[in-house]
Amino acid sequence: MPIAELQVYSVEEADVSGGVCVVRVVGGTARAGQVYTAGGLRLGLARIEAWGAPRDFVDPPHAARVHLTGPMVALLSRGQVLTCVPPAGHALDDLETWLATDPPLREEPHPGPLRALAVARMHDESLPDAVRLRWGRVALAAVARVEHRDAVERGVERAAVRGYLIERFGPGPGGDPAELCREVLALIDLTPARAAAEARVWRDLPRERILRLRRIKNLLPWMTLVRAHLAADDPLRAAVDAWTALAPRLP
Questions:
Q1: How does pLDDT run across 144-155, given as a tens digit for each residue?
Q2: How many C-beta neighbours within 10 Å does residue 231 have?
Q3: pLDDT at 214 over 60
Q4: 74 near 43, Cβ under 8 Å?
Q5: Whole-number pLDDT of residue 50
Q6: Cα→Cα distances 210→100, 140, 199, Å
Q7: Among 38, 128, 141, 153, whose Cα sits 20 to 30 Å from the Cα of 69?
Q8: Which tens digit of pLDDT belongs to each residue from 235-247?
């Protein structure tokens, strides 16, 4: 997908917080919520007006009146081109600061691409451990922003990130294995005995119940992964063992 680019026609108003410009889209698709760069500084595309009405997006070769955030707006000049920043173009520090403001979901980078970027950086062994841990926290924040079908689907993604961090970096820096196990168990609405009974006849079950068993199965590897980090006398070990033994029989 082409990267969005805006060419400035005029700056109508501007102050230290941002301003309003008339621009022409010369590449890609401009969308409200995107971040642009000009002269090494960032500007946020807050709102778009075109054809006399608010718009979510505008594409080439159309012109639009755009509301931009950031003090750089006052320094823009006619003919200057603003380039949209792709997800991978955002610095870790900037993402952490941005996420701390609990930004609207329409602002970019969107949750899905941000999650993919953060998980990839979390796994990148060329980065220092401290940086990978920070990317892991960004991944968890992105998972929280992604729209999921239900709590179990979100739980699977959270458990995958948390389980990896604990296994790779150990309890403490990577997180709390007992807390992860408790969180996963709280999402399972069946006892091991009931799940085992359903697993024996899963081919005869309604589709919804088969999918429920499958979602439970998707949660289990992350508890199994961190079991060794639980205290020897932690009763969670027995619960993890019961579900781990059952996992191969689930659909």
A1: 998 877 888 899
A2: 11
A3: yes
A4: no
A5: 92
A6: 39, 28, 9
A7: 141
A8: 999 999 999 999 9
Give the C-alpha distances (Å, rounded to integers) separating 5 from 43, 61, 74, 80, 214. Answer: 13, 11, 19, 10, 44
CATH number assigned to the domain covering 5-85: 2.40.30.10
Supply the DSSP string of 190-238, one letter for each residue. Answer: S-HHHHHHHHHTGGGS-HHHHHHHHHHHHHHHHHHHHGGGS-TT-THHH
For the chain, the structural domain boundaries read 5-85, 177-251
35, 108 contact by CB (below 8 A): yes
CA gap 234, 51 in Å, rounded: 64
Average pLDDT, integer, range 160-167 = 96
Nearest Cα neighbor of 22 from 84, 85, 73 is 73
Query: Could you tell me how many residues make up the chain?
Result: 251
Contacts 24+ apart (CB under 8 A), 46-54: 46/18
User: Which three-class secondary structure state does DSSP give residue 58?
Assistant: strand
Cβ neighbors of 188 (< 8 A, separation 6 or more) are: 195, 216, 219, 243
Distance CA 45, CA 127 (A): 31
pLDDT at residue 104 tops 90: no
Asked if 138 and 99 count as a contact pair (C-beta separation under 8 A), the reply is: yes
Residues sharing a CB contact under 8 Å with residue 94, sequence separation 6 or more, in sequence order:
42
The mean predicted confidence, pLDDT, of the chain is: 92
pLDDT at 2 over 80: no
31/35 Cα distance (integer angstroms): 9
